[in-house]
C-alpha cells in the first residue's frame, strides 16, 4: 500500500534535513523524485546520492516565494517527468520573536515562505492533478500550529501564525479538491533535529532538558521518523484520509 512505483513526487525544501530524507524515502518506494530548493549545489549532492542507487531524481532550483520561479520549476518537472502525482511542501523557516519584537520584514519573510510558498506550489501543481484526477498533497505544518510557548526565550509568534495558516489552507483545499481525486493533508512535527534546529534549539541544553521532561517519548524526533507518516499520506494507504493534521510529536501535544 505504500509502494510508489510509477509515481512522480515533488519535494520542496529538499536540499537537506527532513526534505532530503523524504526524497530518499520516496525514491526507495519506487517514485521518481524532483527535489526543489534554492541551493542547487546541495540539491545536486542529494540527487547524486539517490541516483547512485539506480533510482530517478532531478534537482530543480526554485525560490518558492517567487511566482515566476515556481512556475518555471513546475514546467521543468513536467518537461522531464510529464506529470506530478505527489507534492510535499516541506520548505519553511522559523523566526523567533514576539509581535513586540518582530519586524514587518521578518513577518513577511516567514509568511512568504511558510504560507505563500505552499500557495504558489499548489497553484501550479493542482491543475496537473485535477486533469489526471489524482493527487497527493502533503503540507508540513508543525505542532506549533496548535501549541505555543510561554517562555519568552522560545516565543515564535509568526511561526505559530504561519503554521496555523498552513493547516487552514490544507483544510480549505481538501474540502474542494477531494472531488477530483486529490487528497490534501498536513503533518505537524514536534522537535526534530534538522539543519534549521541543529544550531539553535539543539544547542540549548536547558530547553532540551525541559522538552524531554515534558514529552511522553522523553526525547526529540529522530531522523527518519517522519518518513513513515509522509509515505502514508503520500500513498494509497491513505486513500480515504483528507483534510487532516497528523501530529508527529512523541505525544507532547497531549500533556
TrEMBL record:
Record carries keyword Ribonucleoprotein: no
GO molecular function: oxidoreductase activity, acting on the CH-OH group of donors, NAD or NADP as acceptor
Any one GO BP annotation for this protein: bile acid metabolic process
InterPro entries per UniProt: NAD(P)-bd_dom_sf, Sc_DH/Rdtase_CS, SDR_fam
Superkingdom of source: Bacteria
Key words, A-Z: Oxidoreductase
Family designation: Belongs to the short-chain dehydrogenases/reductases (SDR) family.
Listed name of the protein: Short-chain dehydrogenase/reductase SDR
Amino acid at each position: 500500500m505504500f509502494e510508489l512505483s510509477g509515481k512522480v513526487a515533488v519535494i520542496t525544501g529538499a536540499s537537506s534535513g527532513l526534505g532530503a530524507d523524504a526524497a530518499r524515502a520516496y525514491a526507495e518506494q519506487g517514485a521518481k523524485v524532483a527535489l526543489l530548493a534554492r541551493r542547487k549545489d546541495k540539491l545536486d549532492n542529494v540527487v547524486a546520492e539517490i541516483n547512485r542507487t539506480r533510482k530517478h531524481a532531478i534537482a530543480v532550483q526554485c525560490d518558492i516565494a517567487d511566482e515566476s520561479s515556481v512556475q518555471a520549476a513546475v514546467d521543468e518537472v513536467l518537461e522531464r517527468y510529464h506529470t506530478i502525482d505527489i507534492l510535499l511542501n516541506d520548505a519553511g523557516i522559523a523566526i523567533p520573536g514576539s509581535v513586540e519584537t518582530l519586524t514587518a520584514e521578518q513577518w513577511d519573510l516567514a509568511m512568504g515562505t511558510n504560507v505563500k510558498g505552499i500557495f504558489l506550489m499548489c497553484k501550479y501543481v493542482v491543475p496537473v492533478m485535477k486533469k489526471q484526477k489524482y493527487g497527493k498533497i502533503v503540507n508540513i505544518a508543525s505542532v506549533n500550529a496548535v501549541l505555543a510557548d510561554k517562555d519568552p526565550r522560545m516565543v515564535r509568534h509568526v511561526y505559530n501564525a504561519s503554521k496555523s495558516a498552513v493547516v487552514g489552507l490544507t483544510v480549505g483545499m481538501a474540502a474542494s479538491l477531494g472531488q477530483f481525486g486529490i487528497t490534501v493533508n498536513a503533518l505537524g512535527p514536534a522537535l526534530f533535529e534538522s539543519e534549521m534546529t541543529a544550531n539553535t534549539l539543539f544547542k540549548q541544553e536547558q530547553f532540551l532538558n525541559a522538552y524531554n521532561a515534558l514529552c511522553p517519548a522523553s526525547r526529540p524526533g529522530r531522523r527518519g521518523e517522519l518518513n513513515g507518516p509522509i509515505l502514508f499520506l503520500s500513498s494509497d494507504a491513505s486513500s480515504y484520509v483528507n483534510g487532516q493534521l497528523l501530529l508527529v510529536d512523541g505525544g507532547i501535544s497531549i500533556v
